[in-house]
């Protein structure tokens, strides 16, 4: 406990949380329907039949789970009878039950009030259940044909609301405009579009090229008409016949199945930025200036909208919604007790880095001898394009690699590379060249251990990237590094140094480690795991499972299961393999297993506990029943924002933890962590919940462990938003899933030889 206390420092933060207050002498009351012959079905029927009469008596009320809540108090009252065709009528009574003073019931009422307030805002467009936008507050980028709407996100939490800035990017061209240029219908799957005629938002399932506005459909009143005629009559819009239709789905409240609907491309605006805009540095700088406001601007907007909520009037009346319920929302955002985790020291090869220093610059400070590097001289290959630019890039790369290898003392690269030229920028030519190199090595009884592909192309847009990775991963079974010629045009030495860090991790080395991991996880053999499924429309699912194999939590075994998701026994199989690999490396099964699961909202918790958690239990029971399991979920999509309290609010320090009861109460222990160092805009916290722990009083150890793991991602110098195992699982699932093609003769999957090396070949 003393060691834990030394890891924390108490601080205060300002939040975007606004608390509700019940006005003096005001109460909220609960009522129930009583029946002579009671059943839940009859009670719901009575509420539906007597809704008008209940409203006359209570003035304002909400019905939640057969409970009736109102700010009006009346005595128990007979409403009438529920005629069931029987001689004895079922008498319906509205019975007073209790005053509501707090707890879950009050939270349910507040959630309903917030929902009503959100749906009542004038001059705003609602997107989803908790976001509102002002179309009139729009930042126009006419030259690039898009605009940015300003708005707010309002999330009810405990006994208050979190209010944050929100932004929506709308393109000024329609999906049809874009389709006429690209002709690629598959690229729109999953995109969000807005209908111009009523400003509703939909997700594109696919483009139905066999359909057109001439097609017929059944309207809500049962009449058959064409899309063309429907839009002419209802909106006085004349449609272009020569266009496909957009297939999407609409969720219907109270129904399990979604309703399929069709939209018109020329009436749908695209959202989000296109690739041309994303590659324009000056435009993106201006977009960031708008969409990443500083702490004070966020607080000002939060407090301004809290005042707007206080003055919201019920639709069709002049009645103030909060006044009716005797409530007031504080317009001042709350100050909250928090704490920071001391980051400790980053362990390097020759000298360590104190992470608490003020002027931390890890981009430069980590460019030195790494913690652990492969000692054996490697058989490595450098392939470059034959043209003059490729020759220049090769020379530049080798010169800077030589300097970096000497500085890092990277003995593995002291051997001379096998250098070959690629004569054509085609997949077939690259495959043939690599086959020839591999045969040459086999004749010399050598095994290729690493390949550097120096290729033409811009960032994220090399024609040969997928082919290069397929060759190294599937045909040869070694890690590889793709370097683009354009990448080396500026800051070459710094870029090459960063490449060497990645190469170290891809070869099973450890660029850096971190000290002062919680004693619990150091004293007992501990394995940290994360799972992520690649799941995109019309694409093959892939389940990635990454698990640590060493005491420092820096080396990994990485699995990928083709066609698998979280269901069935896929997680069970993955954990059994991970436990066995850990035993092979350490001669003992892990005594503690911590599993992180990313992207889980409150609504998905029952699925995790019902479908996923039992698989982990079964795996442990089957492999090593004495292993202790801890299951932690992460959610980056949260409305909470926190700032350093003081005269000028700023981003909180890296390692700030918020676990205050005002916003973190619940069945499972939970906390917000701001792990990253943010210099522009506002830090985004991640919410963690400990869904299960076989070890009691684990909360503080998990907080420290989670933060420490955020420093151990080797594709970035500094802490990231989530623990490194979670990020690696995401990288692996995305790396394989986004490039896997069902039509491939040989699948885009690593061969077993590469998997067994235990290297981060996919970062």
From TrEMBL:
Entries under Pfam families matching the protein: PAZ, Piwi
PAZ domain residues: 174-272
MF terms in GO: RNA binding
Domain Piwi per the UniProt entry, residue ranges: 450-741
Domain of life: Eukaryota
Cited CDD domains: PAZ_piwi_like, Piwi_piwi-like_Euk
PANTHER family: EUKARYOTIC TRANSLATION INITIATION FACTOR 2C
Similarity-based family: Belongs to the argonaute family.
Protein name per UniProt: PAZ and PIWI domain protein
Source organism of the structure: Paramecium sonneborni
Classification lineage: Eukaryota, Sar, Alveolata, Ciliophora, Intramacronucleata
């Amino acid at each position: 406990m003393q060691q834990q206390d030394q890891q924390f420092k108490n601080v205060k933060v300002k939040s975007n949380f606004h608390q509700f207050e019940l006005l003096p002498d005001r109460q909220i009351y609960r009522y129930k329907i009583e029946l002579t012959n009671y059943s839940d079905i009859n009670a719901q029927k009575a509420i539906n039949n007597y809704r008008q009469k209940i409203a006359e008596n209570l003035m304002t009320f909400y019905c939640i789970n057969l409970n009736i809540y109102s700010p009006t108090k009346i005595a128990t009252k007979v409403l009438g009878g529920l005629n069931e065709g029987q001689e004895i009528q079922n008498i319906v009574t509205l019975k007073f039950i209790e005053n509501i003073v707090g707890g879950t019931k009050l939270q349910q009422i507040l959630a309903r009030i917030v929902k009503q307030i959100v749906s009542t805002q004038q001059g705003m467009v609602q997107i989803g259940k908790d976001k509102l936008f002002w179309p009139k507050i729009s930042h126009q980028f006419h030259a690039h044909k898009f605009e940015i709407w300003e708005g707010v996100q309002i999330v009810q939490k405990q006994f208050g609301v979190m209010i944050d800035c929100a932004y929506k990017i709308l393109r000024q061209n329609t999906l049809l405009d874009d389709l006429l240029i690209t002709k690629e219908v598959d690229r729109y799957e999953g995109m969000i579009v807005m209908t111009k005629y009523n400003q509703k938002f939909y997700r594109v399932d696919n483009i139905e090229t066999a359909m057109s506005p001439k097609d017929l459909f059944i309207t809500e009143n049962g009449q058959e008409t064409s899309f063309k005629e429907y839009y002419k009559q209802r909106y006085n819009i004349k449609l272009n016949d020569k266009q496909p239709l957009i297939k999407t789905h609409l969720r219907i409240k109270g129904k399990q199945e979604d309703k399929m609907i069709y939209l018109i491309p020329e009436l749908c605006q695209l959202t989000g930025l296109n690739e041309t805009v994303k590659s324009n540095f000056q435009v993106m700088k201006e977009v960031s200036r708008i969409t990443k406001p500083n702490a004070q601007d966020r607080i000002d907007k939060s407090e301004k909208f809290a005042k707007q909520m206080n003055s919201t009037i019920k639709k069709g009346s002049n009645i103030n919604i909060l006044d009716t319920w005797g409530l007031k929302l504080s317009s001042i955002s709350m100050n909250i007790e928090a704490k920071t985790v001391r980051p400790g020291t980053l362990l390097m090869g020759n000298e360590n880095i104190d992470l608490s220093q003020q002027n931390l610059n890890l981009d430069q400070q980590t460019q030195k001898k790494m913690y652990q590097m492969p000692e054996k001289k490697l058989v490595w290959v450098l392939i470059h394009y034959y043209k003059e630019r490729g020759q220049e890039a090769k020379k530049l790369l080798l010169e800077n690699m030589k300097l970096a290898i000497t500085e890092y003392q990277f003995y593995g690269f002291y051997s001379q590379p096998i250098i070959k030229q690629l004569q054509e920028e085609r997949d077939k030519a690259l495959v043939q060249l690599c086959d020839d190199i591999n045969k040459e090595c086999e004749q010399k009884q050598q095994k290729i251990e690493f390949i550097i592909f120096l290729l033409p192309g811009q960032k994220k847009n090399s024609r040969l990237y997928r082919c290069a990775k397929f060759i190294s991963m599937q045909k040869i079974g070694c890690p590889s590094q793709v370097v683009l010629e354009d990448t080396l045009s500026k800051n070459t030495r710094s870029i090459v140094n960063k490449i060497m860090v990645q190469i170290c991790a891809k070869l099973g080395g450890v660029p850096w480690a971190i000290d002062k991991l919680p004693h619990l996880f150091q004293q007992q053999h501990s394995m940290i795991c994360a799972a992520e499924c690649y799941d995109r429309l019309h694409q093959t699912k892939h389940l990635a499972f990454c698990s640590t194999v060493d005491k420092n939590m820096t080396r990994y075994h990485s699995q990928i299961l083709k066609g698998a998701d979280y269901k069935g026994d896929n997680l069970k199989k993955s954990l059994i393999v991970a436990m066995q690999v850990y035993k092979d490396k350490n001669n003992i099964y892990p005594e503690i297993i911590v599993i992180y699961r990313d992207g889980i909202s409150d609504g998905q918790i029952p699925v995790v506990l019902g479908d996923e958690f039992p698989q982990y239990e079964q795996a442990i029971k089957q492999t090593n029943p004495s292993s202790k399991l801890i299951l932690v979920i992460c959610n980056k999509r949260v409305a909470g924002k926190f700032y350093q309290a003081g005269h000028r609010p700023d981003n909180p320090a890296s390692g700030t933890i918020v676990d205050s009861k005002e916003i973190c109460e619940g069945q499972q222990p939970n906390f917000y962590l701001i792990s990253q160092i943010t210099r522009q805009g506002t830090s985004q916290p991640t919410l963690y919940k400990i869904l299960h722990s076989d070890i009691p009083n684990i909360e503080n150890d998990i907080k420290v462990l989670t933060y420490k793991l955020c420093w151990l991602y080797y594709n970035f110098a500094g802490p990231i938003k989530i623990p490194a195992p979670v990020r690696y699982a995401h990288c692996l699932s995305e790396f394989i899933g986004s490039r896997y093609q069902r039509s491939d003769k040989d699948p885009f999957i690593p061969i077993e030889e590469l998997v067994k090396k235990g290297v981060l070949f996919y970062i």
